[in-house]
Design goal:
By secondary structure, the protein is mainly α. It is 70% helix and 0% strand. The chain has eight helices and no strands. The longest helix has 28 residues.
Length: 171
């Protein structure tokens, strides 16, 4: 039973196989999150998105703690569920374009993809360079929750910049 739980936790933490990418697994995880977002995240109202993010944070923290134990290292590069969390937080402002007709009334067509790509680039920049307090936050919580927290904060920073850009163009 434990072996099955370990495999399930690793599969979840790796977002399937994205975390097994031989080069830049974090970027592969963010890319997987970006590609899943239009169908598994952005289509929902804001309240549901917040519940999804809370669930990903909690489940990612639990599974990430287990992955650290199974892989016998702190913050293993294979664990990319934190990238999904941060990427989806960064993409929250795209919901404004989908659900608020007064701001352009876009839907999940090609018109949203430039904004989503900008959110991807912004999140990756914050996640890679980790300005304060992102780097410091890695040690604020134990185990998998520490893994999740820095990407949560990087996603907030990226989302704020994306939100600012969207407001500048549509308001």
């Amino acid at each position: 039973m434990n072996a099955l739980i370990d495999r399930a936790a690793l599969f979840f933490c790796r977002i399937g196989w994205a975390g097994l990418s031989p080069k830049a697994p974090g970027t592969a995880g963010s890319l997987a999150a970006l590609l899943m977002a239009p169908w598994a995240f952005l289509v929902f109202p804001l309240q549901v998105q917040v519940l999804i993010l809370i669930a990903v944070f909690v489940l990612g923290g639990i599974a990430g703690t287990r992955a650290e134990r199974v892989l016998r290292c702190k913050d293993p590069s294979q664990v990319v569920i934190d990238e999904l969390l941060g990427q989806w937080i960064a993409l929250l402002p795209v919901s404004l374009l989908i659900f608020r007709p007064g701001m352009g009334g876009l839907d999940l067509t090609l018109a949203c993809w430039p904004w989503m790509l900008l959110g991807f680039v912004l999140f990756r920049a914050f996640d890679i360079f980790k300005p304060w307090p992102i780097r410091a936050s890695e040690n604020w919580l134990p185990g998998g929750f520490g893994i999740m927290l820095d990407d949560l904060i990087a996603g907030i920073f990226a989302g704020f910049l994306l939100y600012s850009a969207i407001l500048r163009l549509y308001v």
